[in-house]
């Protein structure tokens, strides 16, 4: 009987592990199609801006997103449920203007790669097509939590990034990683980001404060996707609202309730 009980327990653990692995794979499988979508969309948006200018048409509001897999939308039920397209849709309602979204984020990005790849890509677009964004958002730091960089080196990377970002970027700190070493590390990175973002006159989106204020069980299971790492659709709605509430007063536009905003319709 004892052997049977042990076998049943081991089987349950194995089955549970397989379910968790399948759920994590479901999110991981979003990586490539989401990336391909944004790459094609970016090219289409840039080409349409150029064509419209040649035809004498005014620019739309140009919104550029920088960041990691959260900006890509991984973990959402649908790509358009990510916080970036939900913010783009909200900006249209707030301003009454069409919104051209250029999403330069990369899944797996860390602070140095935003600086060396995404900021450089934005500068290339500005130089080649004379496209200057009206709004820039940046979420970064979550993937840096797992790297054991000394605080001095992390501060060096962060201050280089905030110095290179377009003036007035809306940049987020790192969401809560809960208690334990990773949680402490996330808070350390957030403190560094806030310090240098303030120095360089960027606008802070306080993801850390919002996520750490939630009960731990609710945060883990109601605000995360099936891999228990990436945000889910519910969480991304709240993320988008944080950006909306910060951006509105800065640009002199009324804020909106993101939950009431229709899904983003690609401009190009």
From TrEMBL:
Gene3D superfamilies tied to this protein: SGNH hydrolase
Swiss-Prot/TrEMBL keywords: Hydrolase
Xref: Pfam families: Lipase_GDSL_2
Record flagged with keyword Transport: no
Domain SGNH hydrolase-type esterase: 65-237
Keyword Protein biosynthesis: no
SUPFAM superfamilies: SGNH hydrolase
InterPro entries, A to Z: SGNH_hydro (IPR013830), SGNH_hydro_sf (IPR036514)
GO molecular function: hydrolase activity
Protein known as: SGNH/GDSL hydrolase family protein
